[in-house]
Structures are given as C-alpha cells and as structure tokens.
Amino acid sequence: MTWFLALCMLAGSGREFELTASTGTAAGRLVELSAERVVLETPKGPATFPLAQVVRIVPRGAEPPGAAAAQAAGMSVELIDGSLIAARDFQTDGDKARIVSALGEMTVATRSIARVRLQPQSPKLAEQWAEIVEARHPTDVLVLRKQASLDYFTGVVGKIGAETVQFETEGETVDVRRARVEGVLFARPAGNELPSSLCTVVDAGGSRWRIRDVKLAGETMSIVTPAGVAVSLRLDQVEQLQFEVHYLSDLKPEKIEQTPLLAAGTISAAERRFHQPRFNADPRTGPLHLAGSAYEKGLSAFARTELVYRFPEAFSRLQMVVGMDDLEATGASARLVVHGDDRVLYDHVLGGEGVVPLSLDLRGVKRLKILVDFDGNELLGRVNLCEARLLK
Questions:
Q1: Sign of dihedral through CA atoms 240, 192, 170, 148?
Q2: What does the alpha-carbon distance between residue 77 and residue 85 come to, in Å, rounded to a whole number?
Q3: Which uninterrupted H or E stretch holds 182?
Q4: Other CB atoms within 10 A of residue 171 CB
Q5: d(Cα 203, Cα 216) in Å, to the nearest integer?
Q6: Which of 89, 233, 322, 336 shows the smallest number of beta carbons within 10 Å?
Q7: What pLDDT, in 10s, does the model give residues 56-96?
Q8: What is the mean pLDDT of residues 249-262?
Q9: How many helices (H) and strands (E) are present in the chain, helices listed first?
Q10: Contact 347, 329 (CB under 8 A)
C-alpha cells in the first residue's frame, strides 16, 4: 500500500508555503507537520501553530487547485475513508488493485476501495452516477453506460482487467467489455468505524487524500489515510492542505443552565448578563483571551454553568485549548467536566497552568455536556474553551 514515485526527489527545493490559521497567517518553509502542530521557518524565525488553529496551507504564490488535473485523469478511485484518487488506469488481481495516476503507480488492497469510476462523465451522467452511489446496495454493483444513460446490476465483481470486467450474477459469470463499464461499487460491511482525519491533501495530479497520520522529512511528506493507505509525496507535488473546520461554538446548545451562587433576588441584571456564557468574538466583548493569545473562535463560561449539545452528525474527536480567562484575577480557578453521553471525557480543575490542549474521543457520542463548576476556591472565574474543533 505504498506509493511509488517514478520521479526522483528534489532535495532542498525549499518550497515556501502560506498558512492561514484562526489566529493569523504566516509564510515560509514547511519544516514540521504533525498531528499536534505545524512549524514554518519564516524570515523572523520559526512560527508554530497548533493544528487545531490551522485552516489552510498552500504553496506561496500558487493558484488555487482546480479540477483540471482530476478531469484529465479520466478515472476516479474512492477509498472507504473518502480519499479520491485521480487515476489514469485501474486494474485488479485478487485482493490487490493497481492504480496509475499522473504521479506514478501504487498498489492498494481492494478492501480499502469503495468505488471506481472508469470513464469520464458529462454533468448529466455524473448526476445519475451520484444517485446510484447514494442508494443502498447489499452486494457489489456493476454500472453500465447505455448511450446517454446509466444502468446497473447487482452481483459480485471479479477481476478488472485491461479489456474486460469479470462479473457474477444469478450464478452466472460473464466477462463484460470494459469499454461498456462506467464503474463498479464494492459492497462493504456497515458499522466499520475508521480513525478520524486531520485534513485533506490535494496533490498535483488532482487526487485528494484524507490524512490520519503525517510525517515530514526534508522535502518528503509521508501520509497515512484512515483506511491505512500509505502515500509519499514530494512537497513540490502538494497543491493544498485543507482543514475541515466545524467549531463547537458555532453550534446552538440544546440547553444552557446556570446555577447562581447567590439567591436570584440578590443578583442585578448586569451581573446576570456578565455571568452568561459567551460564544466567539463579538464587537461588544471582543475576542477570548487565553495565556496571552486572542481567539476569535471559542466559548467562555463562568462557574456553575452547564451547556448541552446534541450533534446533528457524527464526529470522532473534539480538539481545543482550555484554561482560565486572562482577564480573571490571579489565583482564580474552576472545575471543567466534559461528558460524552454518559461517559466522562475530561474532569480537571483549571487555574494557573496556562493553556491546556485537549483531544477528546467523540466516537459514538450523540450528546455532549460541558460543566464549568465551583471547585471550592473563593476566586471564581471564566473558563475559556478556545478553538474547539469537531473532527469527523
């Protein structure tokens, strides 16, 4: 499952990248990329960004990646993790698939492949293809092109060769001329949970790789997709790194519950407003402040506040940095408790330690509860949950 590049590595090319983060921008040589952080070597020295803050990384001065390279390839191979390979040829033999793209040749286990489109498509055919893909199929599917429309048959897809596609249906095995085959959909068992992806890498050949793990060594980026497919790219073959951003603070809580320390009659309206949760930066209150940094995205809650979220879709992980608001009195503290359904994901007293990075497992979680509570300290304060990003 390793990508073999036909071209030699261009050592020391020093390609520069532009990074856009929620906290600012930077440009320079990419010297470190991991699941935790990104480091650029800039004229002013190293610029480090936690991965949770990064939105996009592109080569400096490059045009945004378009669909021309993917369209030129003519074929597409979609992995079970959503990675999309722009292919020039695709063949299978047993449990292995051979894929040729503009960047070289690779071998992938067929169990990692969800579907393959073998022909270029017009918008009309692409719409029909999407309808077939979205339908539920208990078996493999062979899709044929008949003039200006598509038709499909269920059965078992066998060897995909240069001239024919082997297909078994109703107990009979036939060799279908490949020129007639629009594509194939492979049956895959439901409920197979894959690891979350950190970002998507778009390469110069038009392929889009979802990334579970990434390592940078010199001018080579080695990545592993959630399906376990390993890929190595030179930095001059990387067109863009896209970070899909879903912020918890952009979701509307299902419930906000505050328990005042004093009786309701002894609290003024201004005090009640002061103790209300805050969501993201706004013109009235400005950004959230944590350990000397300002954050546009995040939520802030005073002690004895409970927020409950019900997720509209499945997420695999919650990444954020937490701590006491910089504007609170020295020595202030509070207890932060995070529940995923009935499971405690995090329980810790915050105060004095600066920024605490968190990465919480949300697999299977449908309801998230965040409690900022009194911890016995007389100096209460706000807890800031900054850059709270939900990963799929």
A1: negative
A2: 5
A3: strand 181-185
A4: 6
A5: 15
A6: 89
A7: 899 987 665 555 555 556 899 999 999 999 999 999 999 99
A8: 83
A9: 3, 35
A10: no
Please give the DSSP secondary-structure letter assigned to residue 282.
B
Q: Which two tokens stand for residue 218?
A: 């010199």
Q: Specify the pLDDT at position 259.
A: 78
Quote the pLDDT of residue 7.
27
For residue 207, what are its two tokens? 């392929």
Residue type at position 74: G
Three-state DSSP state, 33:
strand
Q: Using the 8-state DSSP alphabet, how is residue 244 labeled?
A: -
End-to-end CA distance of the chain: 24
Q: Give pLDDT tens digits for 189-203.
A: 776 778 878 889 999
Tokens, residue 97:
């698939």
Residue given tokens 């879709």 in the structure block: 313
Q: In what order do the strands lie in the sheet with 3-5?
A: 3-5, 104-109, 96-101, 89-93
What letter does residue 316 receive in the DSSP assignment?
Answer: -
Phi-psi category of residue 104: left, alpha or beta, with phi > 0 → left and psi -120 to 50 → alpha? left
Tokens at 328, concatenated: 């609170």
pLDDT in tens, 357-368: 898 989 889 999
Strand ordering across the sheet containing 220-224: 213-217, 220-224, 230-234
- pTM greater than 0.70: no
Residues 6+ apart with CB under 8 A from 194: 80, 81, 226, 227
> How buried is 153 (Cβ within 10 angstroms: 0-12 exposed, 13-18 middle, 19+ buried)?
middle
Rounded to an integer, what distance in angstroms lies between the CA atom of residue 144 and that of residue 240?
34
| Residue pair 270/366 in contact by the 8 Å Cβ criterion | no
Q: How far apart are CA 309 and CA 253, in angstroms?
A: 5
DSSP conformational letter for 88: S
75 and 205 in contact (C-beta within 8 Å)? no
Bridge partners (DSSP) listed for residue 86: 76
Q: Which two tokens stand for residue 275?
A: 């103790």
Distances (CA, A) of 23 to 40, 47, 297, 391: 15, 12, 9, 19
Q: How far is CA 35 from CA 101, 177, 196, 255, 346, in A?
A: 27, 45, 11, 32, 20
383's tokens: 């807890």
Looking at residue 1, its pLDDT comes to 38
Residue 302 binned pLDDT confidence (cut-offs 50, 70, 90): confident
